[in-house]
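Appendix B. Raw example, untouched.
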Amino acid sequence: MKTIIKIIVFLLLPISLVAQNTIDKKAATMKIIKGFTDDYEKTADNKKYLSSNLKVFWPAGNVWPDGSGAGFEDFWEFYANFNKQSKNEFSNVNISELDNETNSFFTWTSTSRQWKEHPEWVGTTAEGPIAYRMVWENDQIVEWHIFMDSKSRQEQHANQAKEEMMGNNKLTATQIFEKVVNYYDPSGKWDSFSGSMHIQTFGINWASEEDLTIDNPKDYYRCIRYLPEGKFIKGVEKGGVFFSAMGEEFNPDQVPEKYQKSPYGLNEKDTRMMREGHITHFSLPLYLHAADAKPIDEVSIKTLFGVKCLAIKFEGLSDAEENSFLSKYPITLYIDPANDYRLHAYHVDNGWWKDGKGVLGLTSGEIEIGGIKIPAKKLYFEAANQNFQVCDVFTTETSIEEKKNY
């Protein structure tokens, strides 16, 4: 009798309640990732996980289909045929689930089998890290955000001239650094720079959103963090710190103890530490240059994620913030000379993460604010083994409180 009653109750539940949480989204995400390595027959079943209203958001400056918001039909054709074009392998896969999203991080290696548009790619291999952010509605993906730094085969394999240039490099570390600075700030605007941007951060089982503002002439910094309770503000102005929580302002010595701790961080130590980190989100090279940092004389060559780079190293800044997690430690910049001396990656030897080897940051894409070129995405890895930890995505859009009821 009890069993019959349970069945009747289940049948009387609203359809919306029955339809939710009927699949293991982490397992489905893994199937979808593995689908890139399978032939069509094995991949076809994954179609059920993709909404007919699917929108796929691609990174800028990539060899993949141009234009964010690609639709279901175009993407499915690409997905189903990818294995025919390339032999693909994935490693270090890490998937987490947060609310209605799954976030995944992994390393990708792809060797071309055939490619109509680029027959010269056949037999070549490209590699790089990838992060996926999938937004689910019930049991289907409605948004698929792809953050990646898988450099094109043209860049990785048609690079004899690049290797010769690097092998015959006559530039000093200081000259290389000047080229980097000139690329990101061609008009010399950093000293007078003022601007804002939005940052979305997602890691393993957590995510956050913030608006960042800096004004270099006024030595001003502000961070607005958006949390379920409301918005929390911290900043530095005229040398002093300021705070507010859900619209209520506090003097530094009046902040409630709860808000001084994570995830709020409304305390002077965290604020000054994050100020440095957030300014370098706008530009690490320009931050070092403004601090009159000088690279040591040695220039080395290192390949990171399939890109051969010139490496220049800085010792820690003597006048860095006491609680600095960045500029008071050795920093190595990995520069791609074949791409206008862009910053490809950087290593902060600050003792963090596995074996105390520090943080390896990889940049991808670009936005521009006030004449300054800014990386659009950063992927962070343990320097010891290149395991993913965190992904940051930057946009020029700010003030998301207009979209949320704070």
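End of appendix B.
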